[in-house]
Design goal:
Blueprint: H1 3-6, E1 9-14, E2 17-22, H2 25-45, H3 50-63, H4 69-75, H5 78-96, H6 99-108, H7 114-129, H8 134-152, H9 157-170, H10 179-188, E3 197-198, E4 201-202, H11 204-222, H12 242-257, H13 267-287, H14 291-299, H15 302-320, H16 323-334, H17 339-354, H18 359-377, H19 382-395, H20 404-415, H21 422-448
Antiparallel strand pairs: 1-2, 3-4
């Protein structure tokens, strides 16, 4: 049989432009792989244009017929996008209310010296970050650390690094703590309470807390020489308590939704968006102006939402082409069908890769791979899902560029006149991360392996 007989051509003639492309299965798979690799290379090379790159790649998959047009809408996880948008908007209102700064002031007044002030701020950032985006958490707490450092005439670098890495750690603790956790919840069908207890077993929240406990001991050792006394009488006035009620209400409603059987797939997203709408209506009614409402919309990271939407279609496309299945089979073959070996590879490879690349596209790609591996082995996918989340979320703490919260923290320091070297950052981040990841690695396998 000739090459022409093996290959079907589609010809599109529009405005005298003729486009030919292969339709044979092997050629489609090769094209899908090439586009995917080029997409990732461009995502790494041009971070400012990630959303544009992902959406363009998605469009190319659709045009080539790799992703059928009638499946595009269903490839996007709308529940995840709605949760992210709603949470970001509520967080914007929460920050504007000054409640986080007030809570930080109360904590600092109870600390005896700089060491415990740093630890307290890091722990406070962790608590906030379990329910609020990591970057938003850093933006809330870092100014407090800067103020204290200026009063005591010490460098703010150690405290702000500690705040960033602590916020990244706790991002994996709950369903709404980080974009990767929201993505995992949507893909694996996990609800808010499932991050606390799942099938009667302790889940990610408790594993993260164990890692936080061990890594806090590490921080106490790292900052053992910071013994200067702290005196602060600052008391931030809270402008509005309603955003705090919205944030608490979101958590409560997500918990209640966990008990609803056979609920619509977008239930959690509707909760987050619905509460945001209530907050915006309240804001407009109070100020009688659209300016404040527009500001909240401006604080929602539509760039990340666009990036995720594009990535959902990209990953859906390579799934349609059979590439995810091939990758899954490769993992199984390399590990010799050993679940512990696969778990170890996924977790530690995720730590290493997330130290240098954005964990959002990485997790978006790996979630269906983990599902494929589990199907091949007939194994419970949860230990692999949790290993992926732990590795990808905590691995970003290793380097200054591994997580958006780290980049944000260093930007705040740079703006204040402090340039932080890679070595300076990793002196704190490496022992913190390795202690937290190792603890999680052992506990996850003991519980779910």
């Amino acid at each position: 049989m000739s090459i022409l007989e093996n290959t079907r051509f589609k010809v599109y003639n529009r405005h005298k432009l003729v486009i030919f492309f292969w339709k044979g299965d092997n050629h489609l798979k090769l094209a899908a792989v090439v586009i995917f690799i080029l997409t990732y290379m461009l995502l790494l090379a041009m971070p400012r244009y990630r959303a544009h790159i992902a959406l363009t790649a998605a469009a190319i998959y659709v045009v080539l017929g790799i992703m059928p047009v009638n499946k595009v809408f269903f490839a996007v996880d709308w529940n995840v996008l709605m949760m992210i948008a709603g949470t970001m908007g509520i967080v914007s209102l929460f920050i504007e209310s000054k409640m986080p700064a007030r809570l930080a002031d109360l904590i600092i007044r109870k600390t005896p010296n700089v060491k415990w002030a740093i630890i307290s701020l890091a722990l406070f950032a962790g608590v906030i970050s379990a329910f609020v985006d990591n970057v938003a958490t850093v933006l809330m707490v870092a100014p407090v650390a800067l103020t204290i450092s200026k009063k005591l005439k010490i460098s703010p670098v150690p405290s702000i690094i500690a705040i960033a890495i602590a916020s990244n750690l706790q991002g994996a603790a709950t369903l709404v703590g980080d974009t990767t956790a929201i993505m995992l919840g949507g893909h694996a069908g996990l609800d808010f309470l499932d991050f606390f207890f799942l099938q009667g077993k302790p889940s990610m929240f408790w594993v993260v807390q164990a890692g936080a406990f061990v890594s806090t001991i590490v921080l106490l050792w790292v900052f053992r020489k910071f013994s200067q006394p702290v005196n602060s009488t600052d008391k931030t006035d809270v402008k509005d308590y309603f955003p705090s009620i919205l944030l608490i209400g979101m958590v409560v409603l997500l918990i209640l939704a966990s008990f609803i059987p056979n609920k619509p797939a977008i239930t959690n997203g509707l909760i987050c968006i619905g509460l945001l709408v209530i907050g915006l209506v309240k804001k407009f009614y109070t100020h009688h102006s659209l300016q404040g409402v527009a500001q909240v919309f401006g604080d929602i990271d539509f760039f990340t939402i666009g990036l995720l939407a594009g990535l959902f279609i990209v990953v859906g496309s390579i799934t349609e082409a059979g590439i995810i299945k091939d990758i899954s089979q490769f993992f199984v073959k390399v590990s010799n069908n050993n679940v512990f070996a696969i778990y170890s590879i996924i977790l530690w490879a995720s730590v290493l890769l997330s130290a240098f690349i954005d964990n959002i596209p990485y997790v978006a790609t790996m979630l269906p791979v983990v599902a494929g591996i589990s199907n091949i082995l007939g194994a419970d996918p949860r230990v692999l899902y949790f290993g992926l989340l732990a590795g990808a979320t905590l691995g970003g703490n290793l380097t200054p560029i591994g997580a958006s919260a780290n980049i944000t923290a260093l930007g705040i320091l740079r703006k204040d006149g402090h340039e932080v070297s890679v070595g300076q950052f990793m002196k704190i981040s490496v022992p913190f991360t390795l202690s937290a990841v190792t603890t999680g690695y052992i506990l996850l396998w003991l519980i779910w392996g």
